């Protein structure tokens, strides 16, 4: 740890899209859908944390072990006195595995939940005096101009958690392209991007991870409807929808739906939405990659897969991309 006083300088950010507008739009489509970014209100974030602890959900502990084990090699790639920019930083848990080893000059966590981000950044500041912290309350999927940290020796991006899988391949390539632009803005020397990627594997293993015995993923999925009831005064009957999350081995993705158990109508902001029995609302895709298919995706976005670290079972990959 460094010993000079810590600075926390919030950067100007962007706002989250309007949940009500997105929901009205998504439920009006021939294939009803709710964008997965709305999972993460306070209750949804709590449920997601619980998912990460599930025995069936291997992703978080596998990635955490990879970060801990390969931190010295990652540190060599990033270099000392750099700046780390984390996209979708959440609770700032995984960055702690890198900070002591990488010893960056600054850390810029980006997250849409501004108050939450300020709170967790202050806690981190107390633990890492001397680290320049620049929390940016913004939608990390947008084109963001992130001014370089003065005096930093280049900067690296950090996008853990396998979240890239929640974007369709074309959207994922667009996001990787925007991250490259954000990291390499005026006078910033981009060292690379460290990204977590969930790998193609036995369909049964994937099915179990998204259909856990305790029903936490089902509750996480249904929280979208509960959130609409809480925040927008909708009248979804949560028991009238079932969680359905099959793995599609051809498209190499887990598809998540809420399926109406009977014919019903729901009212939202004065509008009525009809559901046929068995009608599905699409809520999430979670794409899985092979190292080669991910390298191809990255190449489409102007990145080169320069290094990769995988666990012994090939469940998950930490990829180091350079441009
Ligand atoms: C955040 N993301 C990588 C998770 C995933 O596995 O796609 C979200 C999730 N959905 C259901 N379980 C976890």
Describe it.
This protein has 323 residues and is α/β, with parallel strands linked by helices. It has helices at 19-27, 42-52, 59-78, 96-102, 114-127, 169-183, 203-210, 216-232, 291-300; strands at residues 7-8, 83-87, 106-111, 132-133, 136-137, 155-159, 190-198, 241-244, 247-248, 253-260, 264-268, 271-275, 280-287, 304-310, 316-322. The strands form three sheets. Strands 1, 2, 3, 4, 5, 6, 7, 14 and 15 form a nine-stranded mixed sheet that branches. The longest helix is centred in the first third of the chain and has 20 residues, at 59-78. It is globular. The mean pLDDT is 94. Bound molecules: N,N-dimethyl-L-histidine. N,N-dimethyl-L-histidine is lined by residues 51, 59, 161-163, 165-166, 210, 217, 284, 286.
What is the gist of this entry?
Helix content is 34%, strand content 24%. The chain has 323 residues and is of the alpha/beta class.
Q: Which ranges are low-confidence, i.e. pLDDT below 50, for 5 or more consecutive residues?
A: none
List the quaternary state of the chains.
Answer: single chain
Number of helices: 9
Question: Which hetero compounds are present in the coordinates?
Answer: N,N-dimethyl-L-histidine
Beginning-to-end CA distance, first to last residue: 30 Å
Element string (H = helix, E = strand): EHHHEHEHEEEHEHHEEEEEEHEE
Structural class: alpha/beta
Mean pLDDT equals: 94
Shape: globular
The proportion of strand residues reads 15-25%
Number of strands: 15
In helices, the fraction of residues equals 25-40%
* Main beta-sheet strand count, sense and barrel state: 9 strands, mixed
How many whole angstroms does the radius of gyration measure?
20 Å
């Amino acid at each position: 740890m460094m010993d000079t006083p810590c600075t926390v300088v919030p950067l100007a950010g962007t706002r989250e899209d309007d949940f009500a507008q997105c929901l009205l739009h998504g439920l009006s489509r021939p294939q009803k859908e709710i964008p997965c970014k709305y999972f993460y209100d306070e209750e949804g974030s709590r449920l997601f944390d619980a998912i990460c602890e599930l025995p069936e959900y291997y992703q978080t502990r596998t990635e955490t072990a990879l970060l801990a084990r390969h931190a010295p090699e990652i540190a060599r790639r990033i270099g000392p006195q750099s700046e780390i920019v984390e996209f979708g930083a959440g609770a700032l848990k995984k960055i702690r595995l890198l900070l002591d080893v990488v010893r960056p000059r600054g850390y810029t966590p980006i997250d849409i939940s501004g108050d939450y981000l300020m709170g967790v950044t202050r806690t981190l500041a107390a633990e890492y005096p001397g680290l320049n912290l620049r929390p940016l309350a913004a939608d990390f999927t947008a084109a963001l101009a992130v001014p370089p940290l003065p005096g930093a020796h280049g900067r690296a991006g950090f996008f853990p958690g396998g979240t890239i899988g929640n974007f369709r391949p074309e959207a994922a390539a667009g996001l990787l392209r925007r991250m490259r632009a954000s990291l390499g803005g005026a006078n910033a020397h981009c060292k690379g991007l460290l990204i977590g990627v969930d790998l193609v594997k036995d369909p049964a293993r994937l099915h179990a991870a998204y259909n856990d015995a305790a029903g936490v993923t089902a509750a996480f999925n249904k929280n979208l409807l509960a959130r609409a009831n809480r925040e927008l005064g909708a009248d979804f009957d949560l028991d009238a929808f079932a969680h359905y999350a099959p793995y599609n081995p051809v498209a190499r993705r887990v598809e998540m739906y809420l399926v109406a158990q009977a014919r019903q109508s729901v009212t939202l902001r004065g509008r009525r939405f009809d559901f046929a029995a068995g009608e599905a609302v699409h809520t999430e895709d979670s794409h899985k990659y092979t190292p080669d298919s991910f390298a191809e995706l990255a190449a489409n976005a102007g990145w080169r897969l320069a290094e990769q670290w995988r666990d012994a079972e090939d469940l998950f990959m930490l990829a180091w991309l350079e441009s």
